[in-house]
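Summary for the funding panel

The consortium committed to producing paired sequence-structure records for every protein in the target list. Below we show the first two records in order, beginning with the earlier of the two.
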Amino acid sequence: MRYHQAWQARDLDALMALYHPQVEYNDFFQNRRIDPQALRDYLAASMPAGREALQTYTDRLRVDGDTALLQYQVTLRGGSGLVSFRACEALTVRDGLIWRVNEYASLVREPAGASTRVEGGRLALSRLGLSARQLGMLADDLQQYFLQSRPYLDPHLDLQQVAVATGYTRNQISFFLNQVLGQTFYRYLNQLRLDHLLAGLRPGDAARPVEELAQVAGFKSLSTFYRCFHERTGTSPKAYLECLEL
């Protein structure tokens, strides 16, 4: 199917050529209708160039008369199990062009193999201004940003700075952290700081002051550092460092 091939190839021109100039595009995930004049920008924002596909098709193409049904899933790995957006698109085709698209999506959390629909965040989702595909991109963009730039090493990093650096709004970032990763913004930063510290510790670090280790990892508060360290390791920084010497 040319529609599927255009998406897989991220060929925006080929995709736009499949739509009727006055196509009716309904995104029920956001409760909005995309104006034909804005459709190209809408689709472009859903096509992350240069990456592996963020979505997988979950069923074969089904055709009934002039309507085709596509089903796919965008999966996000969070801090507790998996979160996925399960979506389907009903395409009405006439004279070789797509006249109407009805796109539906729902957020599903799958802890330990059990699938449960996330109802509490449904209203918040509709207000984010992002489609299901774009939400998948947000997750990927944030994770790549924190992994590559390591902004958490700045003890004064705040949500506004992350929003400016990534191009997303504070509400969009907060939703991802709260609903997908199950963490607050600052708790997430502290976990990243601790990951960074533990990955770099060496036996010789036992002689370094604990305050220095906390500061290098980006912790602004020593008490917060001690609490996070104990929650992760079950012991104090000093005891942990002494074990490295053994």
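The next record, for a separate protein in the list, is shown here:
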Amino acid sequence: MDRRFVLASLVVLAACGGKQEAKTPASDAKEEEHESIGDVAAAQGGIAALGGAGNREQGTGTEVAFAGPLRLETLSKKNPPKLDGVPKEWHARAAAKEKIEGKTDDLGLDVAVQASDDTLWLAAEIADPSLKRSKSYADGEDHVRVVLAFPAGRGVLKAYEIGFWPGVPGSSPGAVKWISGPNAGQKVTGAKLVENDVKGGVTFEATVPWSSFAEAASTRVGLRATFRYHDDGGGVLATGPGGADKPNELLALPIAAEAAVVEGLLQQKGLAGTKPSIDIYADVAGDDRKERISVFGSFITICGPGYRGGKQFFWRELVGEIVTLETGAIVLGRPKEEVVLRRRVTQGQAVHELLELWSIPQGKEEPDSVFAHQVMVISSDGKKKVTNAVHLGAKQIEVTTEPATGWDAGSFKEPLAGNGVEPILLPWGAVKSKTFKIENGKVASATEVPQTPAAAPSTATASATLPKDVPTPAVTKPSDNSKAVMDAYMRDANVAAGTKPKFDLGVNVDGDATPERVALFGRDLVVLGPGFKGGSGYARLTLTQFNEDKDVGELTARDLDGDGAAELIVRGERHVKVEAQTVEIDALFVYQVKGGNIARVFSIETGREVSGKRVQGLVQFVPAKKGKGFDIDVRPGTAKGWTKESYPWPQDKPGSGAAIEPLLLPWGGVANVRYAWNGTQFAPAQ
């Protein structure tokens, strides 16, 4: 009997100054119901050898919900605040509502935080009818304290505490000092504070260099904080619990990308206040800073300051329970780390465990599943078990059989994986172990060590109905085979000899399987190649929607329609004059090359900004519901500085025939639009 078994990813959407160290060890993880193959392999130098098992996460008990009253906004490069002590141009404040000690009835503190690449900015509005300030900046005088904690290892947070003393205008300047640690009492190097007296209190703006915190060089996600006002009378008012001595109790201080996870996914799924069951910080994509990889039930998310522009995020919903994640630059030999994911699926009377290796290739936004293998089958009562040990090494993966418990060749009837997922090796089967060679980010070959199979063959079947990502043609460095044609383009377009293109790809986009060369000179998109137009011509399209060459921010390639040839994906910024102001519009454009011509097949606005106020949408490529390729999933994202009442434009209707599909607004009443390939373009799915 053919027992069909879903194992692979069901993709619903694929979308230094002084220091105060406070380390909090993780609580002991709860024992799993069934023994894990990872535990078996760890004892033999198997999968847990990845990173010395140091970044293997099953949850530490120290996780915190992304959502909360605090927010770390991204500083607008075009409209940075003026450090004058008057925070009128800042975003919405977070109020200190928690009484820590003493009398606080007549006190108030509201704070806002934002950051640039090198500086942390703080604005505070203090209500205190009787301020006490002097040049001594004593602990007993009125001041604000900030505790900021960074992830610093498995279940460990490193906390810093800094004090901000507003000065007396015209008499003494304000001060920013370390509260504790080796530099306690000393001023924070490079920090600035400007105060402004107001009726019933004082306001101030302050800056602190990120270099004050060692961890900030690599980590800007997973931050936690509290902001406290210390009154000279002994009252202490805070934005939340925790402190330098209790960093695990601190609330999240999410950056824009983390806030997008809340507003773009968790709120819609009823998970806004849920703590992630697994949280990992690793450099898997983008710049050298770490991304945050989190698990919420069946959802996995990736976000970070240098990933997807620091404004958007990636997520998938997987079948089964995600039990562990690991990261490490082990198998592929890339500078970025890979993600090893294990999840369990219940099928009938047994639990099946799947191991997957994910990697985000350079120039791409979504992870590829490089390798997937069924590694455990265990009966629901835990008495019967078949496992494989897995060892991840440089450019290879070794899978080995282990002795079975409770099953033999005659009694094992469980289904095996297939359709791109390697089935579990059975101890009574003909293969004792397999070694998979990995080249160019893919499984290139496999060698087997045979063994004598048992007399009674298993009746398990190798079959699956598993949606898989459509492989995009390899994107490589272009060759110089069409140099003469490129020279002809440069002469025709008056491009100076020796000019290097901003982007230069080698990828199959048209005709036979021979890769074409795709280059961007200024705003000119140019396609040529030995198999393109007989090797003697080129196609050229000027991206006139952009005002200047620098407005084109990204060119990538991906097979979106499933025909085996890649489409070209362009992201950039448009500058549109509306009355007396300039509207900055982020947009995505998809181009298809057919019959020697370049044509736009989709475009959408992904973000809009005016004078520091911004709305950011969410756009992801997801496996198509019908046929091959991908659909384009679009959802509302986040807003900064605008509300439903103050936003000056209405929600435009998707699919109305406009040249560019509209940005979805958080208050626009459109929860989701899915665009599917209709044979000629991407249009709203029916």
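Regarding this second record: The mean pLDDT is 85. The chain has three domains: 37-64+255-450, 72-252, 483-684.
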